[in-house]
């Protein structure tokens, strides 16, 4: 993709390669593609406090946060739980 063999690629906007390689995401001015959002999946047996905390965390995560988390995963090869715990700590979620 970077060597000029292709001019257009379908990649996720949270992919760290976009910024690393000075790629330009195109705007969807026609609204043809649905937004990709993180959706927490959990058991329906969660209590109200757990649901509230998950909703708070979900609302706090930005697209830039997601790119940063993906970058840490791919570049630093850190386990997901380490990356998540550090993000939560930095967001002042003590859980």
Would you kindly provide a brief summary of this structure?
The protein is mainly α. The chain has helices at residues 17-20, 48-60, 63-75, 80-90.
- Proportion of beta-strand residues: under 5%
Classify the secondary structure makeup into a structural class.
mainly alpha
What is the number of strand segments? 0
Number of domains: 1
Question: How is this structure best described in words?
Answer:
It holds the Pfam family OpuAC. There is one protein chain. This protein has helices spanning 17-20, 48-60, 63-75, 80-90. It is an all-alpha fold and 95 residues long. The protein is globular and about 50 Å long. The model has no long low-confidence stretch (mean pLDDT 84). Helices cover 43% and strands 0% of the residues. The N and C termini lie far apart (42 Å).
Annotation keywords:
ABC_Gly_betaine_transp_sub-bd; globular; 4 helices; 0% strand; 95 residues; mainly alpha
List the helices and strands and how they pair.
Blueprint: H1 17-20, H2 48-60, H3 63-75, H4 80-90
């Amino acid at each position: 993709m970077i060597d000029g063999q292709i001019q257009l690629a379908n990649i996720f906007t949270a992919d760290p390669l976009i910024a690393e390689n000075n790629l330009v995401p195109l705007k969807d001015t026609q609204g043809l593609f649905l937004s990709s959002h993180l959706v927490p999946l959990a058991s329906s047996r969660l209590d109200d406090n757990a649901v509230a905390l998950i909703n708070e965390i979900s609302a706090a995560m930005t697209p830039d946060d997601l790119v940063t988390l993906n970058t840490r995963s791919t570049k630093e090869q850190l386990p997901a739980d380490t990356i998540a715990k550090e993000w939560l700590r930095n967001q002042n979620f003590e859980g």
